Amino acid sequence: MKVTRASGGSPLDVVEKAENLLQEQVRLSKKQGEPKYDEVICVFDQDNQIKKYNEALTKAEKNNILAITSIPCFEIWFLLHCCNTSSPFSDCKQVCQKLESELKKLEILKSKEYYDKNNSDWYKILKPKLQDAIENAEKLDKYQEYNHENLNPSTKIHILVKKLQSQKDFQ
Fold this sequence. Notes:
Blueprint: H1 11-32, E1 41-45, H2 50-62, E2 66-71, H3 75-82, H4 92-105, H5 122-126, H6 130-144, E3 154-155, H7 157-165
Helix pairs in contact: 1-2, 3-4, 3-6, 6-7
């Protein structure tokens, strides 16, 4: 397994980085006989970049890259650790406000603390609620099956998590 960051940017930047890595691996495979990737997965959110988001989805599908997406933003996945919701959000700021409120209800954040997107400990903090998040994301998926016009909110992070859980070295 190889994990590579796309250093932010738009959803299209993320898919193009994966596409470049995939092409480089194919070149190396032909040259050195090393195996290709079994699967290429990109994680990105819409984050109100609808045109680039749609272009990224198209490019990912064309290149057989699995797109793990969240609408409107990645924080919807964190929110699903705290509660089940299918209510749409106008933007990521609104998701973060709801997330912060739910984290305070669960006493994960104290009353004077705020959600910090850059805190690298979120996985460790939220891990005890991981199964809740998976179940809530699956419920949201089922709800969205009948709501194709507006996939806000949605996330596919649970699909990636379940793939990783099937790996014996996933912690």
